[in-house]
Design a protein that fits this description.
Blueprint (H helix, E strand, L loop, with lengths): L5 E5 L9 H4 L4 H8 L1 H4 L6 E11 L2 E4 L28 H13 L4 E4 L6 H10 L7 E7 L4 H11 L7 E7 L13 H16 L3 H9 L7 H4 L7 H9 L5 E10 L3 E8 L13
Parallel strand pairs: 1-6, 2-5, 2-6, 3-4
Antiparallel strand pairs: 1-8, 7-8
Helix pairs in contact: 6-10
Length: 278
């Protein structure tokens, strides 16, 4: 069995795949990058483990419902976006496998049989895996948002890559609602430049050390006043072990002027060329 890569994906804004009439072409590059994800994999995943920036708990928590419901964790969007369905199955077996891996590493985790797919998950999977026939399990962040702990978590998850499990961290590389306008242009560029260097031009050891000190990066706290949308990156990097990082999506025009990126950790596949802004 081929080893799966890991990913940190910028998941766009709100339920954008169902709002093209409002957003126009804004997320076209993101859509193409997500559509290229499955063809870039070494084989079809047996299941997907999704770490969403939209779920925090006091302890790491796994969705364990075999038929997960939908969780519309957004406000103020058109009525039809609250009827979106992504009917992929869950996987109680994978949830238990993850819990056992974490327990073996001394990390406590619990199961949540009620948690549904939040939009950090279903906006990504609906585009990348539209058939909704691959089981999906969500894994929460821990509320302390400690970068070292989440990198270590990823390392404990790394054996899943050799078991056909695709590990995805879903967030946004620039996440500041008050700066989704021209005021965010320069800060988003500055933080993205730091991310590119840290993730694609540093040794694996340097990469992890820089991520542990991410708040010292240029414009870091402008990019992430609350780092919930950055911490999924730490899990993807930890699970990526010493594999190289590659930028697979880059855009400098989200919401008109914001720079965002997505990254892959592992050998590049045939369809993983960067989809960037001109």
């Amino acid at each position: 069995m081929n080893r799966m890569p890991t990913f940190y994906l910028s998941h766009g804004g709100g339920p954008w795949p169902w709002m093209k009439d409002r957003f126009g072409t804004m997320f076209d590059k993101l859509e193409k990058a997500l559509q290229a994800l499955a063809p870039s994999l070494p084989e079809r995943p047996k299941a997907i483990l999704m770490i969403s920036g939209h779920w925090e708990e006091s302890a790491f928590t796994l969705s364990s419902n075999p038929n997960p419901p939908m969780y519309y964790d957004y406000d103020g969007f058109p009525e039809h976006t609250y009827r979106v369905k992504y009917p992929a199955p869950g996987s109680p077996a994978l949830a238990e496998r993850v819990r056992s891996l974490l327990a073996a590493g001394g990390v406590a985790a619990r199961l949540d049989p009620d948690r549904g797919f939040d939009h950090g998950t279903f906006t990504v999977t609906a585009v990348a895996f539209p058939e909704a026939d691959i089981p999906v399990v969500q894994l929460s962040l821990r509320q302390d948002l400690d970068p070292a702990a989440h990198i270590a978590l990823g390392r404990l998850l790394s054996p899943l890559r050799d078991e056909g499990i695709l590990i995805i961290g879903s967030g946004v590389s620039f996440h500041n609602f008050s700066k989704f306008n021209p005021a965010g242009a320069i800060p988003s560029q500055q933080f993205d430049a730091w991310l590119q260097k840290a993730l694609t031009a540093s040794s694996p050891a340097e990469r992890e050390e820089q991520l542990k000190r991410w708040a010292e990066a240029p414009a870091a706290r402008v990019a992430h006043p609350h780092e919930d949308h950055l911490l999924p990156l730490m899990v993807a990097v930890g699970a990526g072990l010493d594999d190289p990082g590659t930028c697979i999506y880059h855009d400098n025009a989200m919401f008109g002027s914001i720079t965002t990126s997505s990254f892959r950790f592992g050998p590049a596949g045939d369809s993983s060329a960067t989809l960037g802004a001109a």
